[in-house]
Structure formats: C-alpha cells, structure tokens
Amino acid sequence: MNDFDPRIVVYCCKYCSYTAADTAGCLRLQYPPNIHIIQVPCTGRVDILHILRPIEEGADGVFVAACLDGDCHFLTGNVQARKRVEYVKRTLEEIGMEPERVGIYNISAGQGHRFAEIAHEITTKIKELGPSPIHGRDK
C-alpha cells in the first residue's frame, strides 16, 4: 500500500482556505502533492454534484476547506457546505462506500501551518482506506 498515491480534490474558499494554502506555499511548508486544489468564491457554492463528480471520475477523496464558523464572507456559505458534505457522506454510506472519503475542514487565511497539517491528515486517511472502489485500481 506504500506505493498508493491517492488523488484528492480539495475545494478551497477564495477568502480563507485558499489563502491558507498560499501561505503554506509562501512559508515553504511541505504537504503532499496529490492534493488538487480548486478555488471557489465561497464553499457555499460547492454543490453536491461538485463533490460527487470527482469521485465518479476516480478521485480517492474530496474535501471542502471552508472559512471558520462565523467568519464566512457570505454569512452562511460554510454552513451550507457542511450540510452538503454531510448529505454526500450519508449517500456514500448508503451505496457501500466509505463516508470518510469526503469531509470538510474550517481554516482561516492565516493558518498556513494548519492547511499543511490537514493535507497530511487527509492523505493519511485516504491511504488507509485504499484506492476508490469506483476507479478500479487494485488495493
């Protein structure tokens, strides 16, 4: 399993978590290169289909990195994102997939270290789960 390099998509809020990822880069903090960041104007814009599509296309995990609770530029975007992630988790469980393949984290713009730490946590979690059963790669 050591040679398994998971594909992980992370939707990042433009105002907070994307800035945290940028800060991590500026600080030259190392985090796994398998994290594919997609910047969104607000995580409230991340729809259920945006989470499911990468899984359908072979991603091993999908995560949303939202603003801290109470700090969303659009007031409740991160709350909406959390509800959608929870819905997708329940859906995955119903079809027999591990719900841990999706998740949500709250990160502020100044938390570059935390972003790198979360990237490592996500990668470790997905490596433990193994390749997505949808992709068809061998475990």
Layout: helices, strands, pairs:
Elements: E1 8-13, H1 17-26, E2 35-40, H2 48-56, E3 61-66, H3 77-94, E4 102-106, H4 112-129
Question: What's this model, at a glance?
Answer:
The protein is α/β, with parallel strands linked by helices and 139 residues long.
CATH class (first level) name: Alpha Beta
Name the CATH superfamily assignment.
Answer: Lumazine/riboflavin synthase
Strand order of the largest sheet: 2-1-3-4
Mean pLDDT: 92
- Report the total helices: 4
What structural keywords apply?
globular; alpha/beta; Rossmann fold; 17% strand; 4-stranded parallel beta sheet; 4 strands; 4 helices; single chain; 139 residues
Question: How would you describe this structure to a colleague?
Answer:
By secondary structure, the protein is an alpha/beta fold. The protein has one domain: Rossmann fold (3-Layer(aba) Sandwich). It has helices at 17-26, 48-56, 77-94, 112-129, and strands at 8-13, 35-40, 61-66, 102-106. The protein has a 4-stranded parallel sheet, with helices on both faces. β3, α3 and β4 form a beta-alpha-beta unit. α1 packs across α4.
